[in-house]
């Protein structure tokens, strides 16, 4: 007996739609992956000093160390070292393995942006926003691939927290508030563990809930959200119990920038951080003014539409993202984040805080394009091509080696192989060397199976962070310690000082490095401090 099976008329169409969405998502992620890989390969997977700190911590995690925060940085989570340790275990120790977790995190931003945009403006907006996140400006893209501290992860988890908050503020039928509130809190707590920069997302999420949720429902959401926040931020709470509130002391310490001139900080943000975060300019190659002007006008038009293009007066989901964008400069100016922008050396000390700006703008731009898509699809596609073409031009024309250098010190070579060869030939296993070059060298030697201990004597004497204090004793105890300078001087001051001290030495040059090995006796770095200063 035949049994008739009724298939809903719309089922095949829905299946085709899901397959089409999956295909688009895969193509989008593949495009994003290839773009990021091209930059990393062109830079020879360069690790600068801060990147190498996490990479070296990961080696110690493999040996049993269990840090909660980065070494001597009470405000930044040791997230990347754990992710790198897993990568080493799976693929071996290398620059590629060290960069792999951040590459995955950068791709994760595409998905997080899609989720936020879908929540606030619908599915077409989500795809356009994801496209803008997959192909961001060169400056934002490079910073999303740098494992110097978990700034990329702040954006990822912060976006998820804000997405959940929007769902709580504008609930759907049959929604379970407790689950969404706990998820909102957990994502926010993890983001706060990553870095205090999460405050932009946390305040926006909290305000989205407070202005939309009322009565007994607010109490339930607040309790569940705070419980989730406590769970998500558990590592930082444990760390502060162990250290007597080290993170909180750092955040509240007036010397971190809260006492800076507010107007000057706002001007620095407007003139430097805003153009970089919005993709109007970057410092690593040609950045034509006309392209910055066109992209600026495009973003302003999208912002005006988001602000004024509403069918009725009242709060919309998209307003949560607008609030987030307003909070960025407000908190930057009023908190300690903006103080380093006024440093007297001209360092790009706050550019690392700018990428969240683009991912908020991507949602706004995606929402505007989504609205146009519903009326004229060809026009939406043409308008989307404008920022994408400008961003791609920037990515293809930057100098990747310059882009992945530290903003504080930009003289790393693409390959430390020649230096490692000299140190091996001279049987040197301990050096005094500036940490911007020394930490990458230590990692590269570890990857090559050639252990090296490096210590930055001068930076510590000048008041810098003593990142590896235990290394000083090992350098002093080494059989054949050396000094490694980064200079092209024919006769560095260190060599003149050694001659005055009647100390003989061997000099080996592998540009940009100069290896100086005392041979008549050991020379303690305290004897030649002036010859190790910031010139080298």
What structural class do the secondary elements suggest?
A: mainly alpha
Spatial strand sequence of the major β-sheet? 2-1-3-5-4
Count of β-strands: 5
Parts with pLDDT < 50 across at least 5 consecutive residues: none
Estimated helix fraction: 55-70%
Helix-strand pattern? HHHHHHHHHHHHHHHHHHHEHEHHEHEE
The overall number of domains is 2
- Globular, elongated, flat, extended or rod-shaped: what is the shape? elongated
- The portion of residues forming beta strands comes to under 5%
N-to-C terminal Cα separation, in Å?
A: 89 Å
DSSP helical segment count: 23
Largest sheet: 5 strands, mixed
Whole-number mean pLDDT: 92
Question: Radius of gyration in whole Å, from Cα?
Answer: 26 Å
What does this structure look like?
- Helix content is 61%, strand content 4%.
- By secondary structure, the protein is mainly α.
- It has two domains: 18-150 and 254-403, no CATH class; 417-532, no CATH class.
- Strands 2-1-3-5-4 form a five-stranded mixed sheet, sandwiched between helices.
- Strand 4 and strand 5 form a beta hairpin.
- The termini are far apart.
């Amino acid at each position: 007996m035949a049994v008739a099976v009724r298939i809903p008329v719309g089922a095949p169409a829905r299946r085709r739609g899901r397959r089409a969405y999956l295909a688009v998502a895969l193509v989008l992620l593949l495009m994003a992956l290839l773009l990021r890989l091209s930059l990393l390969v062109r830079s020879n997977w360069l690790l600068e000093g801060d990147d190498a700190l996490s990479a070296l911590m990961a080696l110690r995690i493999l040996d049993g160390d269990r840090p909660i925060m980065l070494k001597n940085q009470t405000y930044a989570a040791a997230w990347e070292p754990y992710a790198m340790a897993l990568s080493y275990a799976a693929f071996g120790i290398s620059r590629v393995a060290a960069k792999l977790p951040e590459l995955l995190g950068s791709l994760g931003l595409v998905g997080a942006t899609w989720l936020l945009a879908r929540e606030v403006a619908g599915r077409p907006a989500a795809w356009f926003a994801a496209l803008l996140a997959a192909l961001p400006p060169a400056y934002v893209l490079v910073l999303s691939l740098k494992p110097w501290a978990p700034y990329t992860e702040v954006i990822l988890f912060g976006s998820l927290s804000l997405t959940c908050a929007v769902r709580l503020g504008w609930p759907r039928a049959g929604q379970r508030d407790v689950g969404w509130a706990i998820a909102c809190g957990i994502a926010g707590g993890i983001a706060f563990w990553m870095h205090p920069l999460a405050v932009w997302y946390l305040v926006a999420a909290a305000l989205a809930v407070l202005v939309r949720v009322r009565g007994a429902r607010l109490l339930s959401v607040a309790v569940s959200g705070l419980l989730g926040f406590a769970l998500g931020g558990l590592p930082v709470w444990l760390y502060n119990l162990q250290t007597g509130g080290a993170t909180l002391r750092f955040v509240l310490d007036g010397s971190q920038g809260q006492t800076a001139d507010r107007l000057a900080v706002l001007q620095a943000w407007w003139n430097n951080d805003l153009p970089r975060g919005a993709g109007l300019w970057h410092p690593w190659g040609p950045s034509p003014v006309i392209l910055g002007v066109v992209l600026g006008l495009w973003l302003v038009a999208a912002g005006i539409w988001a602000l004024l293009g509403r069918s009725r007066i009242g709060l919309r989901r998209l307003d949560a993202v607008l609030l987030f964008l307003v909070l960025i400069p407000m908190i930057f100016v009023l908190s300690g984040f903006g103080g380093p922008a006024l440093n007297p050396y001209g360092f790009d000390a706050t550019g690392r805080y700018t990428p969240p700006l683009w991912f908020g703008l991507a949602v706004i731009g995606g929402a505007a394009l989504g609205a146009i898509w519903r009326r004229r699809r060809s026009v939406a596609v043409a308008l989307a091509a404008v920022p994408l073409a400008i961003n791609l031009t920037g990515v293809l024309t930057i100098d990747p080696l310059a882009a992945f250098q530290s903003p504080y010190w930009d003289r790393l070579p693409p390959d430390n192989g020649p230096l490692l060869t000299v140190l091996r030939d001279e049987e040197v296993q301990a050096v005094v060397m500036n940490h911007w070059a020394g930490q990458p060298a230590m990692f590269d030697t570890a990857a090559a199976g050639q252990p090296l201990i490096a210590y930055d004597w001068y930076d510590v004497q000048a008041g810098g962070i003593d990142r590896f204090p235990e290394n000083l004793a090992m350098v002093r105890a080494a059989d054949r310690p050396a000094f490694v300078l980064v200079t092209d001087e024919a006769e560095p001051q260190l060599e003149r000082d050694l001659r005055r001290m009647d100390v003989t030495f061997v000099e080996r040059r592998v540009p940009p490095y100069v290896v100086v090995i005392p041979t008549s006796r050991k020379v303690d770095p305290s004897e030649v401090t002036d010859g190790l200063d910031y010139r080298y």
